[in-house]
Structure formats: structure tokens, C-alpha cells
Amino acid sequence: MTDTAFSALPLPAAQIDNLRTLGYEQMTPIQQLSLPITLAGQDLIAQAKTGSGKTAAFGIGLMEALQPRLFAVQGLVLCPTRELATQVAAELRRLARYLDNIKILTLCGGMPIGPQIGSLEHGAHIVVGTPGRVRDHLRKGTLTLDRVRTLVLDEADRMLDMGFAEDIGAIIDTTPTSRQTLLFSATYPRDIEALSARYQRDPQRVTAPDQHRPVDIAQRAYLCDEPDKAATLIALLQQIEPDAAVIFCNTKARCDDYATALKAAGFQSGVLHGDMEQRERDQRITLFSNRSLRLLIATDVAARGLDIDAVDLVVNVDLPRDPAVYTHRIGRTGRAGRSGTALSLVGAKETQKLERISAAQTAPIEVIAQLPQPDPDYRPARAPMRTLAIAGGRKNKLRPGDIVGALTAGGRMQGDDIGAIAVGDFTAYVAVKRELSEVALVQLKSRTIKGKSFRVRKL
Length: 459
Ligand code: AMP
What we know:
By secondary structure, the chain is of the alpha/beta class. The protein folds into 3 domains: 6-207, P-loop containing nucleotide triphosphate hydrolases (Rossmann fold), CATH 3.40.50; 215-368, Rossmann fold; 385-458, RRM (RNA recognition motif) domain (Alpha-Beta Plaits). Helix content is 37%, strand content 18%. The chain has helices at residues 13-21, 29-39, 54-64, 82-95, 113-121, 131-140, 156-161, 165-172, 190-199, 226-240, 252-264, 278-289, 300-303, 323-330, 351-360, 400-408, 437-446; strands spanning 44-47, 75-78, 104-107, 126-129, 150-153, 180-185, 204-207, 217-223, 245-248, 269-272, 295-298, 313-316, 340-346, 366-368, 385-390, 418-423, 428-433, 456-458. The strands form 3 sheets. A 7-stranded parallel beta sheet has the order 3-4-2-5-6-1-7, with helices on both faces. It has a 7-stranded parallel beta sheet with strand order 10-11-9-12-13-8-14, with helices on both faces. Helix 2 (29-39) packs parallel to helix 3 (54-64) and helix 14 packs across helix 15. The structure holds adenosine monophosphate. The site of adenosine monophosphate (AMP) has 15 residues, from helix 3.
């Protein structure tokens, strides 16, 4: 036993077993630093990014503080975006598997409020939500937080950036002062200090060593003006053949333009921008993360909270003005010990931005003037998976296991042919091997799941 093993912590054996089944054997650095503090009930201010294992760093302690028999909200996690809230809730559900009947509810904006009210009436132990919507529920009297023992502010800096300070304050004011307050933030601007000073008691401060070591990310800048950017992008994608690439543009109109250019070269891509409906955004992110889509073209706003470990390439079609945004963009690749590539297409008018960005980086950015040319005969490979959407979800008591069961019944499909399954309230998405998508469609359409037939379609 080493001191990085979860078994070194004062946790019940059932949780250690649960963590083992999740494949968590060793603590990540942020977990090693935070868990002794959170398990001791102390307040914490932690500097950690998404991908560092921060959800478990607060989630494991949160579960230990729960009284499962008490049907009241005892844990509240505030997140800046619905995407992040959804990911956090999914991770918390995994961490709660060793306890019986723990209800975890997400309350986010952009979703109808009626079903949320219905779910709240049934009681929940943990609420994960965005500040605006959580406050709406408090106003309506559909949520009470007077039994909260653990409050988590996740990506607190982004919540403040997004203008949630007032909502957060109003929400915290309805929780007991005896609560434990855990604040996670990637950066420490002054307003975070103020938030901590106002709502935390003697917080212990920890900083995770930066896991996005820039040396793991090869950075190159191609000097090319606007007329050459599309062809250069296509040539680079043909050369690198990424499994998953995020392509950043500064505006949504440019995202659309580049999606059109890529389509003309045979590349399938999905656009993600802030004006899209939440449902559509969720769907795109699901397709990208379950490997049904290799290329995602995004603006910075839309890519917030996008937490996908396996991105092997980031391309900046436009350079951001702020060097910190560049760092954040390229930090989406080279995660979890993998190597990554970050390429930028830099027009003559952007060279100053490049200089500023280079100056702020510890690792060098290789500048390349010789532009690669696309091969007109190249045919891009399709994504390895295809997604089926099932018109049923948690509200219909659908679970991932039911979907796996329906797909594998009859023996035409094996567990290995099935990829990620995401069950939402009313829709479930299942990724299957592309060549088996027709088989899977027929299989799901011709069978009942939990005694019901659901509409199913390929995305
Ligand atoms: P997070 O930073 O919370 O978004 O976590 C990033 C990813 O790491 C998630 O997919 C977790 O399931 C996974 N993870 C968290 N803790 C561990 C651990 N100790 N060992 C292995 N994987 C982990």
C-alpha cells in the first residue's frame, strides 16, 4: 500500500471496492491533496482544472457526509454550464454506487423547469446545477437548501466570468452557515479571493501540479493568410488524420464557413457555437465524445466545459487575442498522459498576437512558412462509431444496462461493438460500431426495452 492508494484514506471498504471497479486505484495529485481535507470536513480552496480528477476530489468526501435516509438536499454543486453539470452529476452517480438509493439531480437552465419541479418533489440528496436555475427554484420555493452540509463551487472563476456572482451569493445565503464550502477554480483572480473570504471558514489551500505539461503538446504556427487557411487546414487534417480534433474559430459565422469548406473536401464535422439550442449542443458534444464525429468546429464560449480527454489535435483557425485563451484551447489536447498537437493558422495581421502568445508560453511554438497542400484525391475515413438516439431516458426508467441488453439479445452484437451510452432525462444516446449501426437500429426497433417500444433513429 502506498500513500497514493485510495485505501490509505479513511473510507468504507465498499467505496474502495467501488473505486476499484471504476478503475481508480491511485489518487490523482489533486485528490491526494484535497481528500484528507474534505474528509475532515474542512473548507477547501483548490486550484485544479477539469481533467485533473477534481470531481472525485470533492465527490468522495461529499458522499461520506451524506445521510442516505434523510431525503433532503445535503450536497449542492454549482457549475458554470450545463455540460459541466451533466459531467459532474455522472461522475457523482458513479462515486455514489456504494450507497443505496442516492438521488442526484441536475438543475440547469435551457431545460424545461416543470419536470425539474416534479423530480424535486420526489426528494434528492444532491443537486448539481447552474446558479441561475438553482436560484429560480429557490424563488419558486421548489427547492430548499437548509439541510446542505457540503457546498461545492466548481469552476468558480468561470461562474464569476459568466456573471453569476449575485446568484451564487443569493443561493449561499439560504444554506446553513455550518456547511462545508469547497471552492474549485482554475485561476485565482481577486474576485475569487473575495468570494472565498466571504463564504469560507479558514479554507485550506491546495494547488494541483499542472498536468497539461506544455512539452507534451507539439505547437506549430503556419503563416498563412485568410485565402489559404481553408486549404492549409484540409492539408493538415489529411496529413495528421486525427481521431478527434477541435478546430477553434473566433466567430460562429467562421465556424459555419469552415464546416462548409471541410465538407467540400469530404470531411464530416460538427459546429458548436453559443447560439445553438442547448439540446443541439449536447447532441454534438455527445457525438464527438463517443467517436461518432471526428471534427468539432467551435467558438470559445461554446467549448466551455467541453471535457473530452481523447482530443489529439487542436487547430486555431483564428488566434485568440488573449494568450490565456490560447493556453486554455491547447490544453484540451495532450491530456491524461497522451501527447497532443496544437496548430495555429496565423495571418499577417495576427503575427502580433502570435508574438504575445509565444511570450506567454513556456514551450516553443515552431513557426512554419512552407504551407502543406491538400491532396485532391484524398478520401477521409469516417468516424469509427455511429450514434443512435432512443426517445426514452431516465424518466422512462431506462438504464445503460437495458440498452446493452436490448442490443446484445439475439447474439448479433457483442458488448465490444457498443461504445458510450448517455442516458438523459428523455433521450438516450448509444454509440455502436459504424458498420453495425443498421443491425443495431433494427435490433432496437424490433424489441421492447423495459416492456416498451421506443422510437429510435440514427444521428
Ligand atoms: P475530472 O477532472 O473530475 O473531470 O476527472 C477527469 C477524469 O478522470 C474522469 O473521467 C474521471 O472518471 C477520471 N478519474 C478521476 N479520478 C481518477 C483516478 N483516481 N484514477 C483514474 N481515473 C480517475
